[in-house]
Amino acid sequence: MRPAVDIEVDDGTGVWTTDGLPMVYIPRHFMLGIHDSVERALGRERYRDVLTESGAGSAYFWCKQQAAARGLDGVAVFEHYLARLSTRGWGQFTLEDAAFARGTATIRLVNSIYVLGRSAEAEHPVCYMFEGFIVGGLTYLAEDKGLGFSSITCREVQCQALGDAACRFEASLNP
Ligand SMILES: [Zn+2]
Question: What is residue 39's three-state secondary structure?
Answer without folding.
Answer: helix
